[in-house]
Write a structure and sequence with these properties.
By secondary structure, the chain is α/β, with parallel strands linked by helices. The chain has helices at residues 8-11, 43-59, 81-87, 120-135, 178-186, 199-204, 215-221, 250-255, 258-266, 270-282, 284-293, 306-326, 331-346; strands at 18-20, 30-35, 64-69, 92-96, 142-149, 154-157, 172-175, 190-193, 210-213, 229-233, 243-249, 297-301.
């Protein structure tokens, strides 16, 4: 038997899976199905899932195989991924935690504007710092491989440049999260929630006037061809970020023999948080370059403008603190802990 990575065209005939293998044949014991919502050409698959699967297979001497099913090939919608994982329909998922509002309220703290700064590495490491004390309660029924962020939500608009907070007044802006909705409402915009695969059509039909996504997502979806302006701060800070769960079915993980659990563990959590953070920083550049090549205006707000933006979004942060506090979570303490942890790692 030989192992190979089959093309997307061939895989369409076998349920759209990307089958990954490496090296000489060994007795395969475990096949894990990995389901996610982006396409096979997305940086998430090519720079994260495929190398991760290859490494797991190599370190297990071929006893673990990973089948990657992109673009919701196994059915359902992106918000249903977490249920598919819990129900054992699939073994591993990659999803945005905010696609299921209310299920991960503590994790939302890292989405808030100006908690995440300009480094996915720093925020990923901060998530690791806070996991045991603050976040673990939200993941008791799954086995997290990694909770991480992307480089941050740049603002992309079709026809109107945003040079100051007031310029967002009245615009319809897509957001992936309720914290993003809080922020946009504080800025006078109308938030429109939708999973990112729906975004190209929404922009092309002017259902929304813009969106908040990183440049790496913009590229495979060709968002840069649908908008005219892209915005971030001059130091790379964005208007919040999204938090992702790369998680495994808990029963499936616990059913593995100890040596195969160890392989998963060696490629989980703190062991890969910095690496994957850097992956997300690195994949921003091609998307940014594509926007510039397409003639978009890249607007970079100055550091002198940052206090005005911080003041404008503070009501959204206060709203989040109040809501999670009412739910029995010490929102202010969590906010302070997350902010301090991100800043500590960003300064290193």
């Amino acid at each position: 038997m030989t192992t190979m990575i089959r093309s997307a065209a061939v895989l369409a005939a076998v349920s759209g899976a990307a089958w990954l293998g490496a090296g000489p044949a060994f007795a395969q014991e475990v096949t894990l199905k990995l389901h996610h919502f982006l396409g096979p050409a997305a940086p998430a698959q090519q720079a994260f899932f495929e190398p991760w699967a290859q490494r797991v297979q190599e370190q297990s001497d071929g006893r673990i195989a990973v089948e990657i099913y992109p673009s919701m090939t196994l059915g359902g919608s992106p918000p249903q991924l977490i249920s598919q994982l819990r129900d054992g329909v699939v073994d591993i998922i990659w999803t945005v935690t905010s696609y299921t509002p209310g299920q991960f309220p503590r994790t939302e703290v890292f989405e808030l504007p100006f908690v995440h700064t300009n480094s996915a590495v720093a925020t990923n490491l901060a998530i690791q710092d806070l996991y045991d004390e603050w976040l673990a309660a939200e993941y008791q029924d799954v086995h997290p491989i990694l909770i991480h962020v992307h480089a941050g939500n740049a603002l992309h608009t079709i026809a109107k440049p945003v040079r100051q907070p007031g310029d967002l007044q009245g615009l319809k802006i897509r957001t992936p999260s309720r914290t993003g909705s809080f922020m946009l409402e504080a800025l006078g915009a109308s938030p429109v929630g939708m999973p990112v695969p729906q975004l190209p059509q929404a922009l092309s039909k002017k259902v929304v006037d813009g969106t908040t996504i990183p440049f790496e997502v913009s590229l495979p979806l060709k968002i840069h061809e649908l908008v005219d302006y892209d915005h971030e701060f001059e130091d790379g800070t964005r208007l919040g970020t999204a938090v992702f769960l790369y998680g495994m079915n808990k029963a499936r993980y616990e059913s593995l023999p100890d040596d195969l659990k160890a392989v998963i563990d060696q490629n989980s959590g703190a062991s890969i948080a910095e690496e994957i953070g850097q992956v997300w920083m690195d994949v921003e550049e091609p998307g940014l370059q594509a926007a510039m090549d397409d003639g978009n205006e890249i607007i970079r707000w100055s550091m002198e403008q940052k206090p005005a933006w911080q003041a404008a979004v503070q009501p959204a942060i206060d709203r989040w603190v109040a809501e999670v506090t009412d739910a029995g979570i010490d929102g202010q303490a969590l906010l302070e802990a997350a902010t301090a942890a991100v800043q500590a790692h960003a300064s290193q």
